[in-house]
């Protein structure tokens, strides 16, 4: 089943749209005893019960396709008389009104479902859906060509409510609250037959699991008679375990190779999706794809061979979906680490540049200090002497003193073509 088909059914699980004809159930205790059984017309339920059971039905088709919801196919043997698919066909055809058949199926679930010593409630819904003909632009026409009759089976854990305090109305005081047995959200469920191509596919069913790490594979095999299917989470866990074991002890090199695999795989999936954007066919990690991935990720040949062998031994003829084994968190963490390293390098570079600039400024400061000292010295000299002469070297030897009009004078001989500057004023003599 695809997402559109799942959503089409879920849209019916609302008060104004629901058409469930019958609801039946069996409460089982931790010792596998059938404590009570019940059944009746779904639309006759009390308001509060009606909404709670409808909520459970909604949960059986919730979650991620391929992870919480996986497709299971019945082997041919199970479609023969006495097979488990045949039992489900009989239950559907009886519209859940055959008590003996229901009792036998409750026993089958009790014998094949491992609830680890807990109490649980088995619920089964029956429905008939007149599937409207749909046009090419997905508009429904007012006519039905297909009648889809199906069952939903949900197995819900039942546990004692948590201890706590509450208001005891009869005693008008706060005291210990009475603990009740409370029905939880479905742990495991299935839809039979599957709604493939908007019609009944009696050769398969849609299986729901709340716990994607540890789904009830034993119930897939023994309760439904199907080959267990791995959830996306299980595929990722198995793939990563195989790769890590093949690459050896964790080190910087191992982490580098792991990230290489993830990034190359992400690129391959994006490229596939671009080419096959209108197709619902999944991109599988088949042997040729896996081989190319390991080559592109530069995995050493001996380790690549080990990975390929273990993948084949683990997954057999059902290779994992490529997108399922991508560890987006690992890629994101790696990118964050790389960004941090780049930022640190930039900070180091800027620090060095600032240090160089600081040294340049210090040098300039020293030069300015020296210039200022020289200027101060010159100004000091100017203030000390009344007359300061600056002449060309060849002129210095011509300067002499004479007493003129009773005063001591400096005499500087000047030729006709020579000039002098006194306090910045040009003087021609």
Overall 3D geometry?
A: elongated
Question: Strand pairing plus helix content: what structural class?
Answer: alpha+beta
Structure annotation, total helices = 11
Order of helices and strands: HEEHEHHEEEEEEEEEHHHHHHHEEEE
Radius of gyration: 44 Å
Mean pLDDT: 86
Strand elements, count = 16
The main β sheet shows up as:
8 strands, antiparallel
| DSSP strand content | 15-25%
Terminal CA distance: 115 Å
Residue runs with pLDDT of under 50 for 5 or more positions: none
The portion of residues assigned to helices is 40-55%
Q: What would you say this structure looks like, in words?
A:
The chain is an alpha+beta fold. Helices cover 41% and strands 24% of the residues. The protein has helices spanning 3-10, 47-59, 84-93, 99-112, 217-223, 232-247, 252-275, 287-296, 301-315, 328-384, 393-396, and strands at residues 22-28, 34-40, 69-73, 119-134, 140-160, 165-168, 173-176, 181-183, 188-192, 194-196, 199-201, 204-209, 400-404, 407-411, 419-422, 425-428. The strands form 5 sheets. Strands 1, 2, 3, 4, 5, 8, 9 and 12 form an 8-stranded antiparallel beta sheet that branches. The longest helix is centred in the C-terminal third of the chain and has 57 residues, at 328-384. It is elongated.
